[in-house]
Design a protein that fits this description.
mainly alpha; MetI-like fold; 10 helices; disordered C terminus
Length: about 250
């Protein structure tokens, strides 16, 4: 038993340091994909609400296809087809073949997938904002860009936060799917450690504990954000401030 636990030491011949490095790479990939998904999602939501018929059709097709196909299939499809398309383009321009970095490709692929789900979350949050606030913004002479930045975005955060928090937890687990393309995140290094030592139970239980720790830390942060952006909490702060000012 002790000899098995020594395999989790932080320094060789232990694999603990490798697992922690894989966990840090998981966080990097998840964060990059999540931020990319937010950018795509916000643009997609605005396009679905305020765009023209052609743009709305394109965005509807994008979100429907991405949500209908399993993530693993999309990762394999986008990774290999994207690499082939890029190399074909490079060859047509007279350049040598390039190998896409698995981490960068993982961020791009997961971000593209996340963008479809984020689009729907943000779109629903935008539609939940009272129309009176939007009409008042236009009445004060704001253009659409200024209205989105000053009125829509702050007002939609409480409505969007639960869905966006759930997407963050999903993308942290979806990073494990990148093991099929040779990335260096936690699932990949765990498989390498288990294969090298033939101690599969130990390393996969250790990886599960690391994923659980990441989820627990994320949950604490999410709850604090929800408490901060909850409308009634802000109203309570305003009332307490007024009451203090009147004393």
């Amino acid at each position: 038993m002790w000899e098995s636990l020594q395999l989790l030491a932080l320094f060789p011949p232990g694999w603990g340091g490798v697992l922690l490095k894989g966990l840090s790479m998981t966080v990097v990939v998840a964060l990059g994909a999540y931020l990319l998904g937010l950018v795509i999602g916000f643009g997609g939501a605005v396009g679905k609400i305020y765009g023209g018929p052609v743009l709305k059709t394109v965005l509807e097709t994008y979100t429907t296809l991405i949500r209908a196909v399993p993530e693993l299939v999309l990762i394999l499809l986008l990774f290999y087809s994207g690499q082939s398309a890029l190399n074909a383009l490079m060859a047509s321009l007279g350049y040598d073949r390039v190998d896409i970095n698995p981490v960068a490709a993982g961020i791009a692929v997961l971000g593209f997938v996340q963008g479809a789900y984020t689009t729907e979350v943000i779109r629903a949050a935008m539609l939940a904002v009272p129309k009176g606030q939007i009409e008042a913004a236009y009445a004060y002479g704001m253009n659409r860009s200024k209205m989105l930045r000053r009125i829509m975005m702050p007002s939609m955060i409480p409505f969007a936060l639960p869905g966006l928090a759930n997407l963050w937890l999903i993308v942290t687990k979806d990073t494990a799917l990148l093991a099929v393309v040779g990335s260096s995140e936690l699932a990949t290094v765990t498989r390498a450690a288990a294969g090298s030592t033939r101690n599969y139970l130990l390393f996969y239980v250790a990886a599960a504990c690391l994923y659980l720790a990441l989820t627990l830390v994320s949950t604490v942060i999410i709850r604090r954000l929800e408490k901060h952006y909850r409308p009634e909490s802000r109203d309570t702060v305003k009332l307490n401030t007024l009451a203090t000012a009147r004393r």
